[in-house]
Design brief:
This protein is an alpha/beta fold. It has nine helices and 14 strands.
């Protein structure tokens, strides 16, 4: 399985840098997890190949360029963009984004060949298929309805927390999975901002360290994601100070393989 965190920030020289303001992960050039930067940072192969997008929750940094991605491809699509989410999140996307005011209701539109977008609901706690992947999702502890998930491609397994503070059901799902090759888990705010992290449904490195004690799997790669760009270097220092084997900050633009 190959996963890339799309870059989302351009530096003063016009180059993508490591600061992460929008969240979008591309799996095997075929499936996106969230869509913060999907319209601005996909390669030609990814743009041609991604027709399935899993939305973990409706915060803007996770959906910001989803409608623009569909808009860009509107006239060339031969199959719809399938947006997979819980029914609750789908209702929020319909109400707040694809509402005819912020953006057109693309789930009701067609070009000459196909509907351009369709919502595909899934239920937390039940395995479902997305392209070549089998996915299991469970609620995590964020301030809006949010899911974490397990992704399986038949050979490798990756766990993804999405945005969360201290949580339990996610760890039960991960620990009962026979094998986990990698874990992507958030670490948004530095330890000094623990109250802000807790109130906004996020983790600090110290809180992440406590969460990882709930993990029973060993010998897996652990990648910290969702690092707030203002604190990125400080967060990396605090993550390194945890001394957790194979824990590092995920690098935007790099393709990881397991």
């Amino acid at each position: 399985m190959k996963i890339k965190l799309l870059p989302s920030t351009i530096d003063a020289h016009g180059r993508a840098n490591a600061e992460q303001r929008l969240s979008c992960f591309i799996v095997d050039e075929r499936v996106a997890i969230d869509a913060g930067s999907i319209a601005i940072a996909t390669s030609d192969a990814e743009r041609a190949g991604v027709r399935d997008i899993i939305i973990t929750h409706p915060h803007m940094d996770h959906v910001a360029t989803l409608p623009i991605f569909i808009d860009d491809l509107f006239g060339t699509l031969t199959e719809p963009i399938r947006v997979h989410a819980t029914e609750e999140v789908i209702r929020l996307l319909e109400r707040d984004i694809f509402n005819g005011t912020v953006y057109p209701p693309f789930h009701t539109f067609s070009n000459k060949r196909t509907r351009v977008m369709e919502f595909v609901p899934f239920r937390a706690g039940r395995e479902f298929s997305v392209a070549h992947l089998r996915v299991s999702a469970v609620p995590v502890n964020h301030i809006v309805p949010t899911v974490g998930m397990i992704l399986l491609d038949g050979q490798k397994t990756v766990a993804f927390s999405s945005d969360t503070s201290a949580t339990e059901e996610f760890w039960r799902l991960v620990n009962r999975t026979p094998r986990v090759d990698a874990l992507l888990i958030e670490a948004s705010f530095p330890n000094a901002l623990a109250e802000l992290a807790q109130n906004s449904g996020h983790l600090t490195p110290a809180a992440l360290g406590k969460e990882l004690r709930k993990l029973t799997h060993t010998d897996l790669e652990i990648l910290a994601v969702h690092l707030k760009p203002t604190y990125r270097e400080q967060l990396i220092e605090q993550l390194e100070a945890l001394g957790v084997p194979r824990l590092s900050a995920m690098q935007p633009g790099r393709e990881y393989s397991w």
